[in-house]
Every structure is written in structure tokens, then in C-alpha cells.
Here is the input.
Amino acid sequence: AGAKGADSTKGTVGAVALDGRHHLAAATSTGGMTNKMPGRIGDSPLIGAGTYAKDGTVAASATGHGEVFIRGAATATIAHLMEYSRLGVAQAAHQVLIKQLPQLGGDGGVIALDGKGTFDAPHSSPGMLYGYLTRDGRIITKIFPSESPANE
Here is the structure.
């Protein structure tokens, strides 16, 4: 993919982690939408919308059109697909971010990590800045879908 402008990505900062005792954690911070309505609550602070973590299942942090992530209970839905439909983290995240949320009228992305250390970062937005540390200590950074891990 060629160079894209700053409008191709979102402004959220998120983190997901798996510790040595196999506990999962997720955090999400954002400035919200530009020119937002006074009093608007976005998806970032809402557990199950923009942020979710459950030991043994998934840690997920999302960015995008917050109202759509709230209506779609995006990060909780990823966890539920993993738990109840036995989908892997990549399949569950792809189902929510690429197939379901765009039908609700928004786009965005998620970083997601399962309890075994499997990571995925699907996004329906043109770009999403993210990075991760591999088991062998390499730091990988990516922006555009052509650079993303396979979602199939």
C-alpha cells in the first residue's frame, strides 16, 4: 500500500498483555471524536465495547466509531465468539471487525490477544497503527491491511 494521510488511522492508544501466569489485561485510552457532543461517552471506558479482558479467553482493545462499537458490544462479542462458538482469536476478531461492525455503519480495528499468546489486529479502517513484541523479542510495527496477519 502507498503512503496514506493521518486521516487513514484512528487516535486511540490501546494495549493488551499476557503475563507469565497467563493472566490477560487490556487498556484503552482515547481523546474521542473531534467536535464530539458535550457529555458524550465513547466506547473506550465501556467494558465490552472498546475494552475487554477475560483470563483464558481474550484481551482486546478497540479503536474506531465508538457508537458502533458500543451498539455491537465489539470486544465482548469477540470473547463470546471465542468462548461459545469456539472460534480462534483471529476468526472471532475478523467476524466482528470486518463482517459485523461495518454493517452497523462504522469502521475501526482491534488488537486482540488470547490466553496462549496468539495475537491479531484486524481493521476495517484504511489503516491502524499497531505494534507487538514476538516471543523471540522482535518488535513488529504495522499500519495497513496488506501488512496485517492473516485473518483466515
User: Anything to note?
Assistant: Residues 1-9 have pLDDT under 50 and may be disordered. The radius of gyration is 14 Å. The first strand starts at residue 13 and ends at 18.
